[in-house]
Design brief:
Strand order of the largest sheet: 3-4-7-8-9-10-12-13
Strand content: 5-15%
Distance between the termini: 39 Å
CATH superfamily: Aldolase class I
Shape: globular
Number of helices: 11
Number of domains: 1
CATH class: Alpha Beta
Structural class: alpha/beta
Radius of gyration: 19 Å
Order of helices and strands: HHHEEEEEEHEHEHEHEEHEHEHH
């Protein structure tokens, strides 16, 4: 008999999973074949409805959240109820980080990417989906409300679940020249740091012209220096603790370039590194009609390269800087694998619309099963053990 939720040791579908994949997903995917953003906006609307209803919120807490002491962990000074977070790129306008996302079981949320200036992003359609490849193509272009509005929204909407960690991904405004990028990021840090639990510097998105130039050694060193200084000064001025500040890497850099970036991260004592952003590589996308010269792909085509970068970083750093693994994580087995390959925390995004509302709970139940099966008493004990 199919259970509402299995024990993590079986491959049985839950009732929620059956309903979503059998009835809901086919309809919403059919309505968004030529513009996957339609499905994305539909999902956001459902989460807004969820967080606005006491009854729906209580039901979500009961059926979508999986708490277990084995997951509780402290990374870069922050306490996480579980190590599985929603990556940046979903809640760009700070709409559901405070209610809908934590009520679906995520241990932390990264909003944005937020830029100094509000901007609409690139023209639609700018998001496409492939069920065959279990992937999403996006050329969104950092559509967001701008740092000022995001700060106002976050100041008035604290998370509904105690202990829910909220990070902010920061990027460069499209109108800002690359030579003035540092000032752009500094403004956003000064505006948003007080509302964030951590800050992630995004210099690796393929959807803002020239952005990845900031990963070049001199530019990256100067940018990171300005951001770290702004974080400390903003905290001192407003009398709060400087926020953990880290960076998000591209999967398309060589190992030599990544090693150079790591040396700069060591120099400035960044709090964490996220591996990785979307890829411009089209390997694994055979037969999928997407632009070859712009936009990034997330999901299964990114999976192997994201793991390679994670392993490289873990071996290079030996635990010196915490790592957040992301890219192609679509199950509890993937979650466990990233942890054993060196990720202190793990993020996902693309798999959620494919898997449905109880995706996080199923993944965490499977993670708990695998941890206990292999003799671990705490998730932190498993980090890097496969290397």
């Amino acid at each position: 008999m199919t259970r509402l939720f299995d024990n993590g040791g079986t491959n049985k579908m839950t009732i929620i999973e059956r309903i979503y994949k059998g009835l809901v997903r086919p309809r919403i995917f059919a309505a968004s074949v030529n513009d996957a953003e339609i499905a994305h906006l539909w999902g956001l609307k459902q989460l807004e409805r969820l967080q606005s209803s006491r009854i729906a919120s209580a039901l979500a807490e009961r059926f979508l959240v999986h708490a277990d002491p084995i997951f509780e962990t402290t990374v870069f000074g922050l306490k996480f109820t579980n190590p599985f977070g929603l990556a940046a790129g979903y809640d760009k306008y700070c709409q559901v980080y405070w209610g809908g996302v934590p009520l679906c079981g995520w241990g932390f949320t990264e909003v944005g990417t937020i830029t100094m200036l509000d901007q609409p992003g690139n023209p639609r359609p700018r998001m496409l989906r492939s069920l065959k490849h279990r992937a999403i193509y996006n050329a969104m272009g950092f559509n967001n409300p701008g740092a000022g509005q995001a700060a106002l929204t976050m100041a008035t909407n604290p998370p509904v679940r105690s202990g829910s960690v909220v990070g902010v991904s920061l990027g460069k405004s499209a109108k800002t020249p690359i030579t003035q990028a540092a000032q752009d990021y500094v403004y956003s840090i000064e505006t948003l740091a007080e509302e964030a639990d951590y800050l992630a510097i995004n210099v690796s998105s393929p959807n803002t012209v020239g952005l990845r130039q900031l990963q070049q050694l001199d530019a990256f060193n100067n940018l990171l220096s300005a951001c770290m200084q702004a974080n400390v000064m903003t905290a001192a001025k407003n009398m709060f603790t400087p926020r953990p500040l880290g960076i998000k890497l591209s999967p398309n850099e060589t190992d030599e370039t990544i090693a150079d970036i790591v040396s700069v991260c060591r120099k400035h004592k960044v709090a964490f590194i996220i591996a990785t952003n979307t890829t411009t590589n089209r390997e694994g996308c055979d037969g999928w009609d997407i632009p070859a010269d712009r936009g990034g792909v997330s999901g299964q085509p990114l999976k192997e390269r994201a793991k390679e970068v994670l392993v490289f970083l873990r071996r290079e750093l030996k635990g010196e800087i915490p790592l957040i693994g992301v890219g192609g994580v679509a199950s509890g087995d993937d979650l466990y694998e990233r942890i054993t390959l060196g990720a202190d925390l793990v993020q996902a995004l693309t798999a959620w619309p494919f898997e449905g509302p109880d995706f996080v709970k199923r993944a965490l139940k499977r993670l708990a099963f695998l941890l206990r099966r292999d003799g671990f008493h705490h998730v932190s004990e498993a980090v890097g053990t496969a290397l």
